[in-house]
Design brief:
Blueprint lengths: L1 H9 L7 H27 L2 H24 L4 H18 L11 H18 L8 H22 L10 H24 L2 H8 L2 H12 L6 H21 L1
């Protein structure tokens, strides 16, 4: 939140309009609900179910909204969007044979929340990005604090994890800010589906830094993602 506010001041953004404040608050609630449900679903359910279902819904909702609000994109772009959704499913697959609850309901909530975040963020006025993002982060903070108070959940992280948590916060803010700028510069459907390919980056980084093995599903998914991006880029020019 502090970083978003600093960037808003550096960019010389004017104060958010009343409508932007409403959309930002809605995006903050949706985003907070989505990411919390995702983490909880991964903790109590099966990653092989929660991750791909969340990814697909997080992509489909803003894509559908973008088509309704902005019209149907070019055929090549639509083909790329379909390929990208397939790539999300393939790259998000996890070899998870655990028994117990699947966590499917949390995946639906997470996908709905993250998807609606994209739709609400796309309604912001041009030129209002990081100021609105500051409001989103403040809303999320209030939401999480409220949940902690009501559920009396333990919240203090281990001191050694604080640098990593801070880095995650900075990167997440940067990603959200870039998404808002992308939507304002182009199409919601395109921005949503390209941003939903983040599992590809996760798999590649895990392979490079954690030496995790790339499964056949992941390899096909990465290749499919590359083709999808090329189709979307070519169809958008």
């Amino acid at each position: 939140m502090v970083l978003a506010l600093t960037l808003a001041l550096v960019r010389g953004e004017t104060a958010p309009l009343p409508a932007d404040i409403v959309w930002s608050a809605l995006a903050g609630v949706a985003g907070g609900m989505g990411i919390t449900s995702l983490y909880h679903g991964l903790a109590v359910g099966r990653m092989g179910v929660v991750a791909p279902v969340t990814g697909v819904f997080a992509a489909l909702i803003p894509v559908a909204a973008g088509i309704v609000l902005e019209g149907v994109p070019a055929t090549l772009v639509l083909f790329g969007i379909a390929l990208a959704i397939v790539a999300v499913i393939l790259v998000s697959r996890v070899d998870d044979q655990r028994s117990g609850p699947s966590g499917l309901k949390f995946a639906f909530i997470a996908g709905l929340g993250i998807g609606l975040f994209g739709v609400f963020a796309a309604q912001l006025s041009d030129g209002h990005a990081f100021g609105s993002l500051t409001i989103m982060r403040a809303t999320e903070a209030l939401l999480i604090v409220g949940i902690i108070i009501v559920t009396r959940t333990a919240w203090r992280p281990k001191r050694g994890l604080i640098p990593a948590i801070t880095a995650v916060g900075v990167l997440d803010m940067a990603g959200n800010g870039a998404f808002i700028l992308a939507v304002q510069a182009g199409s919601l459907a395109v921005a949503a589906v390209l941003s939903s390919l983040y599992p590809v980056t996760t798999v590649i980084l895990a392979t490079v830094f954690l030496h995790e093995k790339v499964t056949r599903s992941h390899a096909v998914g990465i290749g499919t993602a590359a083709v999808a991006i090329a189709c979307i880029a070519a169809g958008s020019t």
